[in-house]
Write a structure and sequence with these properties.
With 145 residues, the protein is of the alpha+beta class. 29% of the residues lie in helices and 17% in strands.
């Protein structure tokens, strides 16, 4: 499907890509673009977005997904070299329960530095349950059906 046919007028990212809304681009390619997030968690917080409208990771074409990851690497390199980031988070959410609020597939790239707000990481480090081998094997069996 061509770009002209695969946009949603209701989608803010599609409107930015079409020039109908403002966006600050740091990368523009044939399949994927990168814009600075208007509500950054950290200075340089960037969104990698396909130039066509895909709802989430289950909808996006594999070749576009591959390009998204390539651009995430390019942007990560920019952050480390030019913003002096010490690390990078690459994140995505699919579905409202996972925190998706804009239903145009996108990946967040967050530059990180020592001393950043640790509230962001509490969900990750708060994990305490360690799954048993039996639980993992059983889960794998259900997933591979």
């Amino acid at each position: 499907m061509s770009n002209q046919n695969r946009h949603s007028e209701a989608c803010i990212f599609c409107r930015i890509l079409e020039g109908k809304e403002e966006g600050t681009f740091i990368y523009r390619g044939n399949k994927v673009s990168a814009i600075l997030d208007i509500h950054p968690l950290f200075e340089g917080h960037t969104l990698i977005i396909p130039n066509e409208h895909f709802v989430d990771i289950t909808d996006v074409d594999e070749d576009v997904l591959s390009e998204v990851i390539k651009v995430a690497k390019i942007v990560s390199d920019m952050m480390i070299k030019n913003l002096h980031a010490e690390g990078v988070n690459v994140m995505h959410s699919t579905g409202r329960p996972a925190g998706q609020t804009i239903f145009h597939f996108h990946v967040h790239v967050l530059p990180r530095r020592t001393g950043d707000d640790t509230e962001f990481e509490k969900w990750w480090f708060a994990r305490s349950h360690k799954a048993s081998r039996e639980e993992l094997d059983s889960l794998a069996g259900r997933m591979l059906l």
